[in-house]
Each structure stands twice: as structure tokens, then as C-alpha cells.
Design brief:
With about 210 residues, this protein is an all-alpha fold. The chain has a single domain, classed as Orthogonal Bundle (UraD-like), CATH 1.10.3330.10.
């Protein structure tokens, strides 16, 4: 036996015995031995999901009754109308609220209409309107109020700022020919439409930024 053969035989005696089993690649992770510095990857990542901000209608539906009534009174100064709309919450959508507004407005009495009219003012004119136009509107309104005993009201119906004066003057001139009962019916209709337009403006503003 050569010297090289002696070295090989000696190394063979020092080698550890072969393993009696072999760990396969399918061994469950929980059976793996714990090694120093090993980090367990079992924790789930928590993702925060932010709920969408409530819409203006949802805020109105959920508001305290007093808050909802005060908001409604900025659309129509009738306590009966405001109480009725508040008491029938929640509304599933804007159309349902507007339908309820119409129904409540149709049921207003003469006293209710007088209360609502007391909270109305003349249609605002653009800031750059010349003085003669203000004088003409004030004179026309004075004639209207002398005949019917209350402020003139008219729903804008999408009228542009530059057309408000002409629409108001034409409305006063036409309606001065009505008798008091005819004008009461016209006023009730204008107040109903005003309430709907104001509700829509509040609740369908860009991004639902309404305070209702």
C-alpha cells in the first residue's frame, strides 16, 4: 500500500456516516429546524381601507333633526315644510327628496305661504348692474307689493346673471294683471320651484360639498 492509499483510507474513517433519511423539497415549512437569525414570514400585511366620505344627502339623512330643519329653512322658510321633510328621512336619493319637497309644498296653507314669503327677498342683481336698473326693479316691486301685500318671488329656472333683471321686470309686469287668488296660486308654484332648485343646488354641488 502506497502513502497515498494510506491517506485516503484514513480520511474515509473520519467521514460522518451517511444520513438515514433525506429531506425532500415538499417537507412542510413548520417542520423546518429553527436556525439562529431565521425570520418567520407568517404575519399578514395589514392594509388600511378608508371608507369614502359621506355624500351631502347622507349627511342630511344622518344629521340631528334640528340641524336638518335649519338647513331646510334656508331653502324655504316654512316650518311645516321643513318639519315634514325632516320627519320623513332617510331619502334613498335626491329624486326622492325632491318628490317629498313637492308634496309638502303643495299642502302648504295660506298662512304657511305667508310665512315662507316673509323670508324671501327680491332676486339679487349682478354687482355691475347700473343704478337705473335697480331703480326700475324697486319701482316695479313697490307696485307689486302694494297690490298683493308681499314680496315678489320667481324661480330662476337657469336664468343667467345678465337676464335676471329682465325676467323679474317681465314677471312683475305680467303678474300685476292677476287677481289676488290667481297670484296666490302662482306664488305657491314659484315657492315650490324655488325650494327644489335650492335643494338641488345644495345637494348636487361639485363633489357634494353641501353643508346639508
Amino acid at each position: 500500500m502506497t502513502c497515498l492509499d494510506n491517506v485516503v483510507a484514513h480520511l474515509a474513517q473520519l467521514a460522518p456516516p451517511p444520513p438515514t433519511h433525506r429531506r425532500g423539497t415538499t417537507l412542510p415549512a413548520h417542520r423546518l429546524p429553527r436556525l439562529p437569525g431565521q425570520v418567520a414570514m407568517t404575519e399578514q400585511v395589514k392594509v388600511q381601507v378608508h371608507a369614502p366620505a359621506p355624500s351631502a344627502l347622507e349627511r342630511f339623512n344622518q344629521a340631528p333633526a334640528d340641524t336638518a330643519r335649519q338647513a331646510l329653512l334656508t331653502c324655504l322658510r316654512s316650518l311645516r315644510w321643513a318639519h315634514r321633510l325632516t320627519d320623513h328621512r332617510p331619502y334613498p336619493d335626491l329624486d326622492a327628496l325632491l318628490a317629498a319637497s313637492d308634496e309638502a309644498a303643495y299642502d302648504l296653507t295660506t298662512a304657511d305661504l305667508a310665512e315662507a314669503l316673509a323670508g324671501e327677498t327680491l332676486p339679487p342683481l349682478p354687482e355691475d348692474t347700473y343704478g337705473a336698473a335697480h331703480t326700475a326693479l324697486n319701482a316695479a316691486h313697490a307696485a307689486y307689493e302694494a297690490r298683493f301685500g308681499h314680496v315678489f318671488v320667481i324661480a330662476p329656472d337657469g336664468t343667467g346673471p345678465g337676464e335676471i333683471l329682465d325676467r323679474a321686470l317681465e314677471g312683475i309686469r305680467t303678474r300685476l294683471a292677476n287677481d289676488p287668488e290667481e297670484e296666490r296660486m302662482v306664488v305657491a308654484e314659484e315657492l315650490r320651484r324655488l325650494a327644489k332648485e335650492r335643494l338641488t343646488s345644495h345637494l348636487r354641488d361639485t363633489g357634494n360639498r353641501a353643508t346639508l
